[in-house]
Amino acid sequence: MVSKLLVFGGNGFLGKRICQEAVNNGFQVMSLSRSGRPPRPQSPQDKDWIGEVQWEAADVFDPLSYNRHLRDATDVVHSLGILLEDESYKVKVRNPLNKSFDFKSLMPSFGSNPLDKKNPNFTYERMNKESALILAQAFRQTLSSHEAKRRDMPTFTYISADKGFPLIPKGYINSKRQAEAELMHYEGLFRPILVRPGFMFDEYKTTADARSYVHNGLELLNCGNRVLLRNKLRFVNELIRPTISTQQVSRNIISKIKDPSFSGIVSLESMLSMN
């Protein structure tokens, strides 16, 4: 039996790499997003796996738009969320050539313009927490009527976060932790997999943007912490966290989905330690 993986936000920064890794591991993959469009290829290899994914449009807040896809899904991934709630938190990152970049480019992509203040869903509560719980409840209802047909317990993967970030409101990490706690209540119906990546970058990125500059800065700080402080100061270790590639995160997610004994939190340290 071929496993069917549904990735909500599968055309986003991390979501597309989850789709790619799942295809490479023999999953039947469907991406659901507001637009339903595939991502732009970033390398020649991308064209191959993109052609293997079924790209569909759906609204995570409206289960009627995707219930039919959940009925035969063995695994679901929630790869949606926001880092900032509105434009008042927007900052600029400048490179040595004085080119400015919008901080919103660091945020996950989930469809239409996330910085549209007319969008009532653009809050931590709605995007980071309620969207996941609505999806989990819809998945649970599907499982209750089809569980007899399933040999292995299905999985629900939630992309959470390692820590909060300086200058980012506490509501960001609080909404993530609240969603995690609620999802663990479903243990027994499906395996909750709660993934906590740090700042992510893509291994195939070839052009500089805001994310690239932030990534380089964080890597420099991490290097200094390792070489000069030898990671001995706990408060520094809590503040300066390692970065991780979307490919590493995706490999860990698929590995945990395929492990029938695993449920719970996937920490940043455990992901970095995986070969």
UniProtKB/TrEMBL annotation:
One of its GO terms (cellular component) is mitochondrion. It comes from the Eukaryota. Transmembrane segments: none annotated. GO terms for molecular function: protein-containing complex binding. InterPro entries: ComplexI_NDUFA9_subunit, NAD(P)-bd_dom_sf. This is NAD-dependent epimerase/dehydratase domain-containing protein. It comes from Torulaspora globosa.
